[in-house]
Amino acid sequence: MAATAKRNTGTRARGASQGRSGARAAKAAPATAEFSKDEELHAYREMLLIRRFEEKAGQLYGMGLIGGFCHLYIGQEAVVVGMQMAKKDGDQMITGYRDHGHMLAMDLDPKGVMAELTGRRGGLSKGKGGSMHMFSKEKHFYGGHGIVGAQVSLGTGLGFANKYRENGNVAMTFFGDGAANQGQVYESFNMAQLWKLPVIYVIENNKYGMGTSIERASATTDLSQRGASFGIPGEQVDGMDVRAVREASEKALEHCRSGKGPYILEMITYRYRGHSMSDPAKYRSKEEVQKMRTERDPIEQVRARLLEKGWASEDDLKKIDKQVRDVVNEAAEFAQHDREPDVSELYTDILL
Ligand SMILES: Cc1ncc(C[n+]2csc(CCOP(=O)(O)OP(=O)(O)O)c2C)c(N)n1
Ligand SMILES: [Mg+2]
C-alpha cells in the first residue's frame, strides 16, 4: 500500500545498512485514501484537543501545580487520532507514560485527566495515580504504565482475553523506539504469533528514548521488521500524516480481526518537547525540531488541506480552536479548584 514505505513478508531480515529513521520518514509515500470533509474536521478537532491539552498541562507543570513526571505528546497527535478513526468500539488501547493523548482519543473526560495530573479527588485515579497511571475499563483504556515495555506483555494479555472470549476486539498496544529493545517485547511477539492473538504492536518511533537517538541505541533501526523472526508482518507508516495512519491501521485491524494474529505498525513520528518536563534537550538541535514543526506538523497538514479545498475558512478554524480551548480551560479550572483526596484515601485502592 502506498501509505507505507516497506512491508515485511515475514521471512526477510534486514542487516545493519539501513538509513537513518528521519530519512526513511521522508521517503514514506503519501496516503492513498483521501479524507472526506467530515473526517478532516474530526481529525483536526481531535488532534487540536490533544495539542491544547498538552500545552495547558505544560503550563500547569511550570506553575508547580503538577507534581511528579509529566511526558507530553505534542507532535505525535496523528498517531493516536488516526488509530482512533480506524478502530471499532470495544478495541482496547494500552500505552506507556506518554499517555494523555491516548486517553483523550479514547474519550476519557479531559477534566478527569487534568485533575489527575494535579492530584485532585476528581481525577480519574482519584488523584492518587498521576500522569502515568490512569485507566478506564468502560472506555477500553488500560493505562498508563511507567515501566518501559511493561505494557507490551499486558497488551498481549488483552489480546489473549479477546481471543479466549471470541469478542472480535483488537488490543492496540503502543510503545516507543526505546522500549522496542526490551526483552519482554520479544517474549510477547512469540506468544502472540504462536497463538494468533489479535494485537497490533504500535511502535511510536519518535527517534529518541529519553536523550538517546535510535541510531545510538539500536543495532537495527527498521523497527517494523522486529517481528520478522516470529513471522509477524510489519510496516513503516508516516506517523505525521493522519490519513496514512488510519489507512495502515484499518489494514492491520482487519488482519488481526480475521484471525491471522498480530501485526506491527512502526509509526515514524517526532516529539517536539523534551522527553519529560525536566528534559534540557541538549541531545538535538533547535533546527531539527523547528524543521519538523514547520514542514511536517500533523495538525498544520490537515489545516492546509481544509483551507485549500474550501472546506473551512480561517474563521471556521478559529471557532474550532476556541471551542477546544474552552474545553481545555474548563478542565484546567476544575483541576486547580477541585479538592485534594481525603487523608483516609491513603489506604484505599492499594495492595498491602
Ligand atoms: C524498565 C525501565 N527502564 C528504564 C526506565 C527509564 N525510562 C523512562 S522513559 C525511557 C525511554 C523510553 O523511550 P521510548 O521507548 O522511545 O519512548 P518515548 O519516551 O520516546 O515515548 C527510559 C529509559 C523505565 N521507566 N523503565
Ligand atoms: Mg522514543
Short description:
By secondary structure, this protein is α/β, with parallel strands linked by helices.
Structure commentary:
- This protein has 352 residues and is an alpha/beta fold.
- It has a single domain (4-8, 19-332), classed as Thiamin diphosphate (ThDP)-binding fold, Pyr/PP domains (Rossmann fold, 3-Layer(aba) Sandwich).
- The protein is built from twelve helices and eight strands.
- The strands form two sheets. The protein has a six-stranded mixed sheet, sandwiched between helices.
- Strand 7 (234-238), helix 9 and strand 8 (263-268) form a beta-alpha-beta unit.
- Helix 2 packs across helix 3, helix 2 runs antiparallel to helix 11 and helix 3 (77-86) crosses helix 9 (242-257).
- The protein is globular.
- Residues 1-27 have low confidence and may be disordered.
- The chain binds thiamine diphosphate and magnesium ion (MG).
- Magnesium ion is lined by residues 176-178, 206, 208-209.
- The site of thiamine diphosphate has 14 residues, from strand 5.
- One of its GO terms (biological process) is pyruvate decarboxylation to acetyl-CoA.
- It catalyses: N(6)-[(R)-lipoyl]-L-lysyl-[protein] + pyruvate + H(+) = N(6)-[(R)-S(8)-acetyldihydrolipoyl]-L-lysyl-[protein] + CO2.
